[in-house]
Amino acid sequence: MDILITCLLFALGIAFIVKGGDTFVDAASWIAKALHIPTFIIGATIVSLATTLPEMIVSLIAAMEGKTDMAVGNAVGSVTANTALIMATAMLAMSVACSRKQYWKQILLLIAAATVLLLSCRSGELSNLGSMILAAIFVLFMVQNVVSAKMSSKGSHDRETVDRSQLSKNVILFLLGAAAIVVGSRLMVNNGSAIAAWLGVPERIIAVTLIAVGTSLPELVTTITAIIKKESALSIGNIIGANIIDLSLILPLCSLASGEALPVSAQSIAVDLPVCLLVTLVAALPLLIFQKANKWQGIILLGLYAGYLALVI
Q1: What pLDDT, on a 0 to 100 scale, did the predictor assign at position 154?
Q2: Do 258 and 64 contact (CB within 8 A), yes or no?
Q3: How far is CA 46 from the centre of its chain?
Q4: 125 forms bridges with which residues in the sheet?
Q5: Does position 313 have pLDDT exceeding 90, yes or no?
Q6: 96-97 and 262-263 as β-strands: parallel, antiparallel, unpaired?
Q7: Taking the CB of residue 171, how many other CB atoms lie within 10 A of it?
Q8: Which end of the chain is more exposed for a tag (fewer CB within 10 A), N or C?
């Protein structure tokens, strides 16, 4: 009976994260527009940050509670799930075109982040130098997004009249969405640990599977919406941005939250990090070279993800 309640609380945590994330993104976007923050700033910063908020909160809570395997596993596992499961689904479901001029910097930053993470963890922990390089990649990513968006939106001066009652409503929804994400994340971390203990499996495995997929649900919802609306660039761009943030912001923050260099298990170094880099290269390089994705990429990525799950489970 106890394990049933634990599983229900874990599922409730996922529900809180999904609904909270949806509410948070909508409210944040509305507030930004109402306060005359240009639309390009919203797309370049708020949306990509908001969709990774579940991973960020889950990993930070885990790091502060000393559950470093869960912190690292969730961040890295989310990137693997985003790429080899969610992006692969988009590649199979619709024609994916990707302008090299528009995305080459983001793609190279993503590959750089995955490579730096793998190389800087070989000693068994995320080195301080590695954290600083990853943080620098995050800053470059955000600056590049804003600069590119400014250039593409010159001459645009969208404005909205602020409705005070609507502003108050959205501020409340913003706070409630953030609170739901925090509560849901804590439910996932605590009950995910309990499920791992009950099943007799390491926390890392729960983190790179159940929790990683659960916290990637905002990206999955975005991708499904993009498939329905046939907007492949929306899906691919969101996943690339979310992956860069997962690797270059969340892990350095976790290291800071834990108060020391972030320990990384031998299994993560041997399996999770190389697979993360591999699926990133399989997904990103053809986009960079051919400016489009093919269905064979989706099939390969899904096959790699299935093999990865079979290996870790």
Answers
A1: 58
A2: yes
A3: 13
A4: 263
A5: no
A6: unpaired
A7: 14
A8: N
Specify the pLDDT at position 236.
77
Does residue 293 sit in helix, strand or coil? strand
Q: Is 283 exposed, middle or buried (0-12, 13-18, 19+ CB in 10 A)?
A: buried
**219 pLDDT higher than 80:** no
Q: Coil, strand or helix: which one is 301?
A: helix
Give the pair of three-digit tokens for residue 35: 């306060």
- Spatial separation of the C-alpha atoms in residues 240 and 224, rounded to whole Å: 16
Cβ contact 191:7 at 8 Å: yes
- pLDDT score recorded for residue 125: 92
H or E element that contains 193: helix 164-199
Cβ neighbours of residue 21 closer than 8 Å, sequence gap 6 or more = 50, 51, 53, 54, 177, 181, 217, 218
Distance CA 146, CA 219 (A): 21
Tokens representing 186 are 């804590």
Q: Which two tokens stand for residue 193?
A: 């640990």
Tell me the pLDDT tens digit for each residue of 165-208.
888 898 899 888 878 877 887 787 778 878 877 888 887 888 88
Q: Enumerate the H helices of 207-294 as residue ranges.
A: 212-215, 217-229, 232-245, 251-258, 266-267, 273-290
Three-class DSSP category at 97: strand
The model carries a pTM of 0.78
